[in-house]
Amino acid sequence: MNDSEPFAGKPQPILRVKSIAKAFGGIQALYNVTFEVATGAVHALIGPNGAGKTTLFNVITGAYAPEEGQVLYENSEIQGKKVHEVVSRGIARTFQNVELFGSMTVLENVLVGRHVRMRCGFWGAIGRWPRVRSEEREAREHARELLDFVGLGNMAEHRSTDLPFGWQRFLEIARALATQPRLLLLDEPASGLNAVETQQLGELLLQIRSRGITLLLVEHDMDLTMGISDRIVVLHQGQKLAEGPPREIQCNDDVICAYLGSDQEMSG
Amino acid sequence: MRKLKYGFFLLVIMAAGLGITNSYYLQLLTFIGINTLLALGLNMLMGYAGQISLGHAAFYGLGAYTTAILTTALNWSPWLALPAAIVLVSLVAFLVALPMLKLSGYYLGMGTLGFGMITFILIRQWSTVTGGDSGLVGVPSLALGPLSLASGKAYFYLVWVVVLISFIVCERLVDSRVGRALRAIHDGEQVAAAMGIDTSRLKIGVFVLSAIFASVAGFLYVHLVSFISPNSCDFLVSVRLVTMVVIGGMASIWGSLLGASLLTILPESLHVFSDYEMIVYGLILMIIMIFLPQGLTRGLLDLYERSAAVYPRKVKSREPADE
Amino acid sequence: MQEFLQYLFSGVTNGAIYAVIALGFTMLYNATGLINFAQGEFVMLGALSMITLWKGLQLPLPAAFLLTVAVVALVGLLLERLAIRTVRKPHPIVLVIITIGASILLRGIAMLVWGKDAHSAPSFSRLAPIEIAGATLLPQSLWILGVVLAIVIGLQIFHRKTMTGKAMEACAISKRAASLLGIPSERMVLLAFALSAGMGSIGGVLIAPITMSSYDMGMMLGLKGFCAAMLGGLGSSWGAVFGGMMLGILEAMAVGFFSSDLRDAVAFFVLLLILYARPSGLLGVKAVQRF
């Protein structure tokens, strides 16, 4: 699984993060973080707890505006843009603690993901013109396809929070995919999954990559990370500690040192 | 399936209209209809989108006063006054919502309360136009061409047809891209934004929609009783509206009907104990919110589900759009 | 000049009342993150209880004062224990509606107990009004200012010097951290409710001699006290005092120089202005997202 083939993606990196700095009150959560994500790659962001990984996600998606630095997505600056705008440009994310819409069914959750690619507004919803109806039909078809893709095809009508936890994570991924992203950010997708589910997750992620979607994931599960990533960035106390292919990172003394004291083994 | 439901509802309306001859009951049912409209609109805002408005009586009042003023002082036809009232209220709601919906939770509640109070005070003080504390009288009744709608029965039909249309509008809205987005905002606004939903725009939209419902209700009310005073749109009325939504069940369209019915009938039956009315109101509000925060409809359903549950139940999904 | 002074005096007097009500809001908000719509009813209960105990039962002034505050603080305690703590889902809307329900309930009870009539109370001291530069200052105003000042100083001492006070501050800053340090946050919440109710009642006690008290006086006072708290900044005690004074003076000026019809509207205009322009208030901290 650990191949070092050159990527067939576009030459330009899909995401460039330059000298990002973000502070909260007196705490410097991120400082001088710079790296690139190649189009079509699976890129991982690792680091001990509190390293600033989720904060970085929030900066990329627009939830936070950085004090310094830029985020370039497909060559345009997006730092500080509104979250929903960033989504419409093609970046989607999942959350560390699964954040499903509890009042809605599994299918409806995925349909919400589809929101940004639909056009029906208040008038259309009330009027139910033919164009609105066919848009809704298509959306439902695509949503069901996505559910099949992640393996939840026959759970469509269940309430989303009735699903077992592992399946909720997959649902979140389906929902994010519904936004038709070109870059998918996954925040600890394997957290809480058992061994079988983690294996399925890994396969799913590679299948997503083969659909042309670039992946950037934050993960603590080293087996998974080392197994599927093309490149890894290590964050420690808000700064980039190291960057490189998995094999390099595993042998990097600084990285091992940063992780010292935690139970994680750098295996793979 | 849904059309069957509405058809049945229509039959019930017709039957009630034909069967009920007691004019007091007929008028009571008409008031229930008007209150249902109010509750429906507010429910879209509170129940589905998860916002709060403690000043909604202001839109009701604005709708009522606009049509009252236009039809008495300027002799407009009510059917012209209605769109004028809707446009005015939409504008006001939009201007209020713009800055206000950036706030959340308590701040939004307080902001809407402040807006409601200011509107109420302005209505009371601008006596040259609004008649001040005494209000306005002599508001003409409605007529469709030569057909007068002044009779209790005709007005009953009018109001309930409008209610039926509103139900359809709301159900369509809920089961659509917009409705899902609203429910997403309710479930988690930040997450909704992360799914690409322009939350500000939607919140403003649903706020304006609920204001329009309130103004139509105000219009219908004024032309029924031919009189309006500031008492109809003070803070306690706003509280009553919120109570209707809360009791009936937030995010439940038929719950609006339940809540409106209960809160129209209750004061009538409590008149005997008018001294206790406030205590009962207060207690009802508190008890329901403490034990059944999702309102009676959802709350009772939940209790039923929990007691009957052995296997995880399939939630009935809403019907697809191609009915 | 004389007119201006007159307005200033009445403005400062009312302002002090608003300040004490605002302090109740702020204290509760600081300790719990809650806004209690029933705060105004504590003021009303304070006023009416005072009248009953002092004028009706002829208890000596200090005793009536203390007993009133104790009784109303108890009501606040009951509210927390029965209504707030038992809530399953503390969603803001739910809590807002509960406290609104509580305010209606309290008003209903007050109506039964005291009727719909307005009651009056004599001044605390039988001194004659004081003449200053042609304007009249009621001695009651001095009482009001004095008591409010004492409260503010007392609160400062409470928060800075006593363990309980510091514990409450800690809860306000971070409930989780506080409980990790062994501070019983539930008890803090209870205390905060009792204290804010007590403060509201003091406002009522102070205002009873200069206004007619009735069962429905609470709503407007509560709302205005809230506006004052927002004006100064919801998390800040000094903000509450400042906001209260400002509101009182603005109101008096509006009434004096424009029209008395505008009196009630001033508070709400101010509220909306603050919400739009600077939700954290004039003296407050920037944390608006808290809910």
Describe the structure.
The complex is a heterotrimer of chains A (268), B (323) and C (291). Chain A contains ten helices and ten strands. Chain A is an alpha/beta fold and 268 residues long. In chain A, the strands form two sheets. A six-stranded mixed sheet of chain A has the order 6-7-8-3-9-10, sandwiched between helices. In chain A, strand 9 (231-236) and strand 10 (239-244) form a beta hairpin. The longest helix of chain A is centred in the middle third of the chain and has 21 residues, at 130-150. With 323 residues, chain B is mainly α. Chain B has 14 helices and four strands. Chain B is globular. Chain C is mainly α and 291 residues long. In chain C, helix 1 crosses helix 9, helix 2 (39-56) runs antiparallel to helix 3 and helix 2 (39-56) runs parallel beside helix 4. Mean pLDDT of chain C is 83; it is low at 286-291. Classes of the chains: A alpha/beta (268), B mainly alpha (323), C mainly alpha (291). Chain B binds chain C through residues 46, 50, 52, 54, 99-100, 103-107, 109-111, 113-115, 117-118, 121-122, 125, 235, 239, 242-243, 246, 275-286, 289-291, 293, and chain C through 35, 83, 86-89, 91-94, 96-98, 100-109, 111-112, 219, 223, 226-227, 230, 261-262, 264-265, 268-269, 271-272, 275-276, 279, 288-289, 291.
Assign a percent range to the helix content of chain A. 25-40%
Structural class call of chain A reads: alpha/beta
- Helix share of residues of chain B? over 70%
The biggest beta sheet of chain A is recorded as: 6 strands, mixed
What gyration radius of chain A follows from the Cα positions, in whole Å? 19 Å
In terms of per-residue confidence, which ranges of chain B show pLDDT below 50 for 5 or more consecutive residues?
Answer: 310-323
Largest interface: B-C, 43 and 44 residues
Task: Count every beta strand of chain A, where a strand is a DSSP E run of 2 or more residues.
Answer: 10
What amount of the residues of chain B lies in strands? Answer: under 5%
Mean pLDDT of chain A: 89
**Low-pLDDT ranges of chain A:** 1-5
Compute the number of strand runs of chain B.
Answer: 4
